[in-house]
Amino acid sequence: MKRHVFFPSLLLLCGVLLAACQSPHSQAPQSAPGLEVQPLRPGIWMHISYNTFDGVVYPSNGLIVREGDHLVLLDSAWGAEATEELLVWIDEEIGLPVDRALSTHFHSDRTGGVAVLEAAGIPVWSHPMTQRLSAEEGNPVPPNALSGIDAPGSATGFGTVEVFYPGGGHARDNIMVWLPEQKMLYGGCAVRELATDNLGNTADADLAHWPRAIRNAQTRYPGAETVIPGHGEPGGPELLEHMHALFE
Predict the structure, then answer these.
(1) From the candidates 51, 61, 174, 201, which is the catalytic residue?
(2) Any catalytic annotation for residue 170?
(3) Is 201 a catalytic residue?
(4) What's the predicted TM-score (pTM) here?
(5) 206 annotated active-site
(6) CB of 188 within 8 A of CB of 165?
(7) Catalytic: which of 75, 109, 173, 206?
(8) Residues 160-218 pLDDT 10s
(9) How far is Cα 52 from Cα 180, in angstroms, rounded to an integer?
(10) Distance between first and last Cα of the chain
(11) pLDDT tens string 215-233
């Protein structure tokens, strides 16, 4: 099967990244222009899927992490179709099985492909709160809940990575993932890219706690060299400092 990867034009990409600031996750997506996969480090890939709302295209990031002879998927692609395409890409280009997956909060850009993953025999995990909020929202529900991350600032092992619950931010259940070998923090939608000048979709946000959630991440991972936001371009620890500027 021929690999299908979408590379937007420079003009469209600029518009996409700026538009991501306003991503209305609670609305039903209309279509998926495609899927892009970018290598970040040896054994680490960032998958970017797209959805369209009111004629505007928005990107969403996730990670593929190699652990020896298998892979870990951090967030599904945005929707069932894009997640199916992602699994095909992984099979053809990496050729290793996905051992497990993690949804970093309950919005559809994180959970939209849960059913596809489960049908492929890939167990999907999440924060316990994500299960409840997904069900309330009508989004796919991750079947497995992690233990030990109920309190803000708590963390648990997830194979070679660490899952960290900084407390509520972009959503009450948003979690982050620390990749110690790469000194990489997958901040998910609790972290915004540098190109943004606002907090984006705050319909489900915990605005009172969000600044503390970022401080919790900075305190726990002072050695982070790479930070991956939920939407837009990766950067370094300056992304976390940028969040404090946005809160002000």
Answers:
(1) 201
(2) yes
(3) yes
(4) 0.85
(5) no
(6) no
(7) 109
(8) 999 999 999 999 999 999 999 999 999 999 999 999 999 988 999 999 999 999 999 99
(9) 34
(10) 50
(11) 999 999 999 999 999 999 9
One-character DSSP codes across 23-73: --TTSPP-----EEEEEEETTEEEEEEEEEETTEEEEEEEEEEEETTEEEE
Of the residues 25, 47, 127, 170, only one is catalytic, namely 170
Catalytic residue among 47, 107, 127, 231: 107
Among candidates 25, 9, 11, which has minimal Cα distance to 201? 25
Distance separating alpha carbons of residues 81 and 242, to the nearest angstrom: 33
Is 109 marked active-site? Answer: yes
| pLDDT-derived band at 52, boundaries 50, 70, 90 | confident
Note whether 62 and 77 are within 8 A (CB).
Answer: yes
Catalytic status, residue 174: no
Q: Catalytic pick from 25, 47, 105, 127?
A: 105
Tokens of 205: 């946000």
The single residue listed with the structure tokens 């970022």 is 214
